[in-house]
Amino acid sequence: MEIIKFRPLLKQALWGGNKIIPFKQLDTEMEQVGESWEISGVKDNESIVANGQYEGMKLNDLVALLKDDLVGKENYERFGNEFPLLIKFIDADKQLSIQVHPDDEQAKASGQRRGKTEMWYIMQSAPEATLLSGLKRKITPEEYKMMVENHTITDALSKYNVGEGDVFYLPAGRIHSIGSGTFLAEIQETSDVTYRIYDFMRKDKDGNYRQLHTEEASECIDFSVENDYRTKYKTRKNEGVELVQCAHFTTSVYDLDEPLLLDYSELDSFVALIALSGECILSTDNTESQLKAGETVLLPATTQTLKVSGKIKFLETFV
């Protein structure tokens, strides 16, 4: 089967910046692009195949057609025709709202298909780029509501100065916010459910305050405290370095300057490759494709081996 590429879904936002269009080398005049959805099975926001024999098909229709061959036997049994991951690039020119996401059980109880666990890989960002992740001190649900009301909730959150290569794992329930100047790749469950905790008293384009979900969020927040929410890992050249392994995805980073053969013969899953910098040629037994910075490709579960030839840094993720 072919290596599959998709048309990016570009999302403009009041907080969006100007990094995504040049990073992806797109021919468009769009401004304030906050997100590029690279691979999405979210209803009404499905990725469209951009190449090969399935060009023009929606991703979930492709899953329904190819089933195990595309996503793997266990994944198809678990997720059916809905592709299980949402992969994005996010460019925050301004601070995003403080948010939290429910877990799968909480989401289903409120009528959603599933919750949202995610991870961030920070790319080349502004020198002053920051983000918020997790509680830095113990607070109660009552204190949380009071701090939202009196605009002091940020005092309870861990703030990080971030740079290229930093990684944050965000299990459902962890309060977080992407700060101004931060450019990142995000991997998450296929879900668009978000509870907005605090929005810095900002108004939307129509002059209205955006809706907050204080009560819903309080039922989802993990109030435990950790010393450091940053994922620690050691970089290595020309081999995979695992960053996150959880029930929803496993993600590694590769930084290559020599050819590498990846063996997926024992893996019962699709594999997505997210190019962070450089370029390469991807070769399987019967197909070949270029991958360059800003692109994301999908390897079907039938892929046995993949040869990567070139100088490139990419994320590899699968379920």
TrEMBL record:
<feature type="domain" description="Mannose-6-phosphate isomerase cupin">
    <location>
        <begin position="243"/>
        <end position="315"/>
    </location>
</feature>
<keyword id="KW-0413">Isomerase</keyword>
<keyword id="KW-0862">Zinc</keyword>
<dbReference type="Pfam" id="PF20511">
    <property type="entry name" value="PMI_typeI_cat"/>
</dbReference>
<feature type="binding site">
    <location>
        <position position="101"/>
    </location>
    <ligand>
        <name>Zn(2+)</name>
    </ligand>
</feature>
<dbReference type="InterPro" id="IPR046457">
    <property type="entry name" value="PMI_typeI_cat"/>
</dbReference>
<dbReference type="Pfam" id="PF21621">
    <property type="entry name" value="MPI_cupin_dom"/>
</dbReference>
<dbReference type="InterPro" id="IPR011051">
    <property type="entry name" value="RmlC_Cupin_sf"/>
</dbReference>
<dbReference type="GO" id="GO:0005975">
    <property type="term" value="P:carbohydrate metabolic process"/>
</dbReference>
<feature type="binding site">
    <location>
        <position position="176"/>
    </location>
    <ligand>
        <name>Zn(2+)</name>
    </ligand>
</feature>
<keyword id="KW-0479">Metal-binding</keyword>
<dbReference type="InterPro" id="IPR049071">
    <property type="entry name" value="MPI_cupin_dom"/>
</dbReference>
<feature type="domain" description="Phosphomannose isomerase type I catalytic">
    <location>
        <begin position="7"/>
        <end position="110"/>
    </location>
</feature>
<dbReference type="InterPro" id="IPR051804">
    <property type="entry name" value="Carb_Metab_Reg_Kinase/Isom"/>
</dbReference>
<feature type="binding site">
    <location>
        <position position="118"/>
    </location>
    <ligand>
        <name>Zn(2+)</name>
    </ligand>
</feature>
<feature type="active site">
    <location>
        <position position="196"/>
    </location>
</feature>
<dbReference type="InterPro" id="IPR014628">
    <property type="entry name" value="Man6P_isomerase_Firm_short"/>
</dbReference>
<dbReference type="GO" id="GO:0008270">
    <property type="term" value="F:zinc ion binding"/>
</dbReference>
<dbReference type="InterPro" id="IPR014710">
    <property type="entry name" value="RmlC-like_jellyroll"/>
</dbReference>
<dbReference type="GO" id="GO:0004476">
    <property type="term" value="F:mannose-6-phosphate isomerase activity"/>
</dbReference>
<protein>
    <recommendedName>
        <fullName>Phosphohexomutase</fullName>
    </recommendedName>
</protein>
